[in-house]
Amino acid sequence: xxxxxxxxxxxxxxxxxxxxxxxxxxxxxxxxxxxxxxxxxxxxxxxxxxxxxxxxxxxxxxxxxxxxxxxxxxxxxxxxxxxxxxxxxxxxxxxxxxxxxxxxxxxxxxxxxxxxxxx
Length: 119
Prior knowledge:
Layout: H1 2-20, H2 25-39, H3 43-60, E1 69-70, E2 73-74, H4 94-103
Antiparallel strand pairs: 1-2
Helix pairs in contact: 1-2, 1-3, 2-3
């Protein structure tokens, strides 16, 4: 009976993680899997617990993890660095290229503003 309660606890913990931190559901499943492999020594119980973890993941995983597919083709790549919407124009003048190289990695210049403390 304790084994079933522990499996229910695993499912409950994964449900809570899915609600609270959706992006970390797979990480939690990997943690449960590592904990299972390192702490259990009875292989049938290891298989049952791994099945509980990954079947629960398959049921709970966010539906937006799969890429959009229509008519056998992938949709537009919106997060690709090569899409025109995210590309930056190349510097064409030598002065602009030099300024870009010199300012790479430097914070933007700080504007000196005085605060009025006369209140």
